[in-house]
Each structure stands twice: as structure tokens, then as C-alpha cells.
Specification:
Two copies of one chain form a homodimer. The first copy, chain A, is an all-alpha fold. Chain A has eleven helices and no strands.
Chain lengths: 215, 215
DNA sequence: ACCTGAACACCGTTCAAGT
DNA sequence: ACCTGAACACCGTTCAAGT
């Protein structure tokens, strides 16, 4: 049953394995990715995958690397270049929430190196002083990492009951820990929390940092 | 062998279970925490733990909650109150790196609610406009989440070879992905990366946001 | 009410054996 | 060189049986 013709001539390779893994991650979720299911989808044995991939960490890193790309920016405004760069990664995470989990777990992935490098180029173009560039770049990276973790967590808790409003209501409830009166700020923010746009909010955070850099 | 006297009269309770879990997490690391080891340490059966704790997620959440505390601030300067608050959490994560992993994975923990509330109070005291408070609070929370993920990852990759310098050299190598010439910014930052203080850098990131808020 | 510990249903990973 | 699939060494969780 599991022979090469089932694979329709596509030879097993790291690329094809990573493609299949991404398909599972996107459609079935993070927990669904097992070597057994992956092997079944590829019509091969579980052990065969280990010929092309070192272990699950390697597989996940390759999947992230395939999904995060950092296009060369042609924005005239260097601020805008950084914004576009970070929004691009943000959008990739929105499309593939499991990337957020992975980046938060393993920030030293090659993909993050590309982002860090591009941020650095943008900061140079902005004219940020050399001595501040490292702090600035890591502040921007932290903002991205935080948003990534946030998005991945949201995606994990959404499938349970698809309704966004009730999920957010539960966030307020969990955060308030059964004593709403003790959390006036959170109560006050329940409205904005319900209505806000994650992407716009992420951008607002980036803008705060970019503004701070101008002082 | 596993009877109550081995437990020295300490009745099994959620508190004692969480204490034992924290001890394991702190000394043996995140991967070492299993229900089997925990049961052995508590001189009981694995199943007994489930009488007091819903599942592993519940256990981890309780452990985080026990370790993250948000003291009421008495700083005169509201900026300073926010700084101290965030640094307090940062220090807790430094002392217990597994908290970073957990917060990044589950940002809707009660502990994060307390942090968010305290940030909100500080922003109010700073006189930040109502309409910006939500964006500002989540930017600060993202910065904390990003630093938490960063620290947890650092702690995970350090034990392998205790030397900090070689670990950081490897970060530069991994980020540069075998082609240093393509990553001039990262090469230029190799020095600062080696010499930097995580805590100071985190604070610099927070200050960028706080500065941005004043414009 | 609380505890015991074997059993269940999984994992990632390895490895002798095949082609 | 590459693949197969059973086997190994684990997990979290459940549950009949005890006290």
C-alpha cells in the first residue's frame, strides 16, 4: 500500500516533507503534526523522514524558514520600510499561527536573523545612532516576538469555540480572575479589547518605538 | 514504601504539589517536570496529583501564578512605577526561566492580568490619553512577552555548554546562516551582543515606548 | 474524600532488515 | 543510498480498586 506509486513519483525530499508538514500545521493545527501522520500523508514509513530531517525541531525550523520571507524593501521612507518589514512577518504569522509558537520558542532561527538584519538596515537608513541601534533592533524584535506569541495563543484557543466575542470575554474573565472589581483598567478596556484590530495595534506599538527613537 | 510517613505528614494539596513542581522546574529544568517524577518526589502515585490539579496546564499555570507577583508600587514618578513593575516580572523570569516559556505560550494567565492592570494604572497616572492606553499597555506587554520568550530560549540553550561567549557566538552564526557577508548588521552587532546586559537592554526597550508615549 | 498504581493511548526516535 | 515498519523508551491521563 505504501509504495512509491502512492507518492505519485514525487521523490521523498526535505522540501516535500516540509511542504507536507506545513499543510498539516495549517489545516489541522500544531498538535496534529506527528511523524506518524506525516509519514502516512507521504505514503512512507516514519523512519524514512529521519533520513532527510534531523528531528522534529529541525522540521519545524525548516517550516518556519519556508514561510517567513523578508523581501527587499523599496520604500522611500526608512520608517516605512521597517513598518512594512514587520507587518510582513506579522501577516505571515497570522496566516500560519504555528509560526508564532515556533518563533517564541526558538528566536534564534535563521528567519529571525533575516528580520534582525533587515531591521538593522532600516535603523541605519533612519540615521539612528550606532550606539542605540542594538537596543532599538532588539526592542522591535521583542515587539514582534510578543505579538507572535499573542497570535499563536489566540489561534490555539479559538478553535474550541469559533466565536471571537466569547473568546475575548473569557480573556477578560480569566485576567480578572473572578474579581472584576479589583481590575478596573481591564474592565475599562473590555470594549477596546472586543473591537480592536490586532494588526493596527501591533503597528501602533511599533510606532511608539519608532517615535521614541527620534528623541 | 510510598506511604504518608514518607511525606512526613505534609498532606498532599495543590499548594504542596505546585511547590514541588517549582522545585523541579528550577533545578532540573522544564523537560524534567513529569507527573511520574513529581509523584515520586511527593511519595505518592501519579494519579493522586489529578485529584488536586486538573492537568499539566493547570499545574504550570499555578506555578507561574505563584512566582509572578505584582507589588503595589509607591514610586512617586509614574514612569518609574511602570519600569519597576516590568523589571520585577523580568527578574522573576530570570530567576525562573520556565516562566518565560509559559507566559509566551499562555499569555492569558491570571498573572498577566495583574501585570496588565498595573500597567494600566501606571499609564493613567502618567496622564496618557484614554484612547491610547490600550495600545500603550499592549505594546508594553508585548515587550515583556518578547523578552520572556528570549530569556526562556537562552536558558534552554545554555545548559548544553555553560559558556556564555560560545553560546552567543553560535547565535551570531545561526542568524547569519553560513553567509556572514550577507549579514553586515549582525556582524557589526556581534560585539554589543557579547557585552550587553539583558536587563538593561529590556529597560531600554521599555524606555523607547515610554518616550514615544510622551509625543 | 482521597490515594494507589497498573493500564491506555499516545508520542519522538532508533534500527535491523530490506531494495 | 534510501526506505520500511516494528520496537523502544518514554509521555499525560484514566480508572478500578483500595483506605
Amino acid at each position: 500500500m505504501a509504495n512509491k506509486s502512492d507518492r505519485r513519483g514525487r521523490a521523498l525530499s526535505k522540501v516535500s516533507i516540509v511542504e507536507a508538514a506545513i499543510a498539516i500545521l495549517d489545516t489541522e493545527g500544531e498538535d496534529a503534526l506527528t511523524f506518524r501522520l506525516l509519514a502516512a500523508r507521504l505514503a512512507t514509513g516514519a523512519g524514512a523522514i529521519y533520513w532527510h530531517v534531523a528531528d522534529k525541531g529541525d522540521l519545524l525550523a525548516a517550516a518556519v524558514d519556508a514561510v517567513i520571507m523578508v523581501p527587499a524593501s523599496d520604500a522611500a521612507d526608512p520608517d516605512e520600510a521597517i513598518r512594512l518589514l514587520l507587518l510582513g512577518v506579522f501577516d505571515a504569522i497570522e496566516a500560519h499561527p504555528w509560526v508564532g509558537t515556533q518563533l517564541a520558542r526558538e528566536p534564534w532561527q535563521p528567519a529571525m536573523g533575516r528580520v534582525f538584519e533587515a531591521i538593522g538596515a532600516g535603523l541605519g537608513a533612519m540615521g539612528v545612532a550606532e550606539t542605540r541601534q542594538f537596543d532599538a533592533a532588539s526592542a522591535l524584535l521583542n515587539a514582534l516576538l510578543g505579538a507572535a506569541a499573542h497570535q499563536a495563543a489566540a489561534a490555539r484557543s479559538l478553535p474550541a469555540d469559533a466565536d471571537r466575542a466569547t473568546v475575548l470575554a473569557r480573556v477578560v474573565a480569566r485576567w480578572s480572575g473572578g474579581d472584576p472589581a479589583a481590575y478596573p483598567f481591564i474592565q475599562r478596556m473590555a470594549g477596546p479589547l472586543r473591537d480592536h484590530d490586532d494588526r493596527a495595534q501591533f503597528l501602533a506599538g511599533i510606532d511608539l518605538i519608532l517615535t521614541g527613537l527620534k528623541i
